[in-house]
Amino acid sequence: MNRDLPQGLPQDLSPGLPPELDRRRDRRRDPLLDLAAVLAAALLVTAAALVGTSIERRHHTLFVRWPPLFAQWEPHLGPGTPAALAVAVAVVAYGPLLATRLPWRALLWASWGTAAAWTFSLALVDGWQRGIAGRLTATNEYLTVIDRFHDIPATLRDFTHHIVSHSPAPWPAHIAGHPPGATVTFVLLDRVGLAGGGWAGVWCVVVGAAAPAAVLVAVRALAAEELARRAAPFLVLAPAAVWVGASADGYFAAVAAWAVALLALAVTGPRPRATGLAAGLLLGLTAYLSYGLTLFAVIAAAVLLLGSRRLRPLPYVLVGLAVVPLLFSLLGFNWWEAYRLLVTRYYEGVGGVRPYGYWVWANLACTALIVGPATVAGLRRTVTTAVREGPRVLRHPHALSPEPRLALLALAALLALLAADLSGMSKAETERIWLPFAMWLLPACAFLPRPRAWLTAQATLALLLNHLLLTGW
Fold first, then answer.
1. What is the rounded radius of gyration, in angstroms, for the C-alpha atoms of the chain?
2. Backbone angles phi, psi at 66, to 5 degrees
3. Exposed site from 31, 68, 149, 393, fewest CB < 10 Å?
4. C-alpha distances in angstroms, 254 versus 141, 208, 247, 293?
5. What pTM was estimated for this model as a whole?
6. Which string of DSSP letters, residue by residue, matches 442-467?
7. In the prediction, which pLDDT does 101 show?
């Protein structure tokens, strides 16, 4: 008992509270602050929808039918509806318990399988053709140019000559908007006999569903296994799965996630050479899948900061990192020239018409929808944790407890996403484009109590989005 307190004054209302009482008071306030954060996100989404609809009706400059999402209003059911409901109920009911009890390797496999089941079922709400097989065969998609890659080295040497809109035989939007590593992936699938939109869609779903397992590996290595287990159900039941199935960005998200996971193992585990080299290879590949994924350098820097052996694997990471860029350069593709021409094409097209003043904040509304209310609440707790730790987060990262370490990782992903937003090169369609960054915001849900209630909110949002809207990806 504190004898300096005035008689009758409750300790938890007095100045100079002991740390344990201060934390107890915070725990009582946290649920209300979580709900306030979710309400703020809901208001942001509402404002983006109302303001966006007004702009599109008056000026037709957004080029989306259901702002802020690239989607259209079309309530519908489909063959995936019963499966999606079943997966959602199963994860809400049993996910938190199984995440704590399964052996670690079994948890990773279960996360991959459950994420794949959730993504496939959501995609099949739109039917096989419209939801999976036809996604990557549309006008601006990768499979439309497979026949132009019959000689891959020659096409790579000529790639930059077809990026800008007024060039001869310009590439469709997605091919021009990405380095050729993305298109070459689908060309190679075609070469090995997995041709057509069906196989391409399945590839994106199956590979994209591996991203949650990668995030779990990284969280366990950099923070704590307990936090990874608590995050697992949220990673597999994320609303982001609506856009993972079936878009190439789901595939990109998994490659980037495993690059970070392997880097985390390199700076904490017993095999820094092998894991460092593999991390470098995948980091190099990410830059040749999407120009925007170069911002994963921010997340990689956070991993190095948190690692106990941050310098030992670095030479192997750098060697691995050079492989893919060197290969594409030797084949004749100039990344920097291609990006310069892409900027020109971007502003020649709808990117130059879409208003930055709207999308710079409406993009964040898209992010709130793909990560869901639980992640919004988790990020609120993440920021609180980081503020509480103060300068120690950057000055003494090795001395941090697991929670601040996870907070630093999530905040690095948020910083990378905000950099992408401010760049102006991601105006609209960020519910798909920012999937790789969103995967690293989801672990913030590990900070939340009562996981079943939050999982229910996540699943409900995903099901409503997929059944009320026909998304463009």
1. 23
2. -135, 75
3. 31
4. 19, 5, 12, 12
5. 0.93
6. GGGGGG-S-HHHHHHHHHHHHHHHHH
7. 98
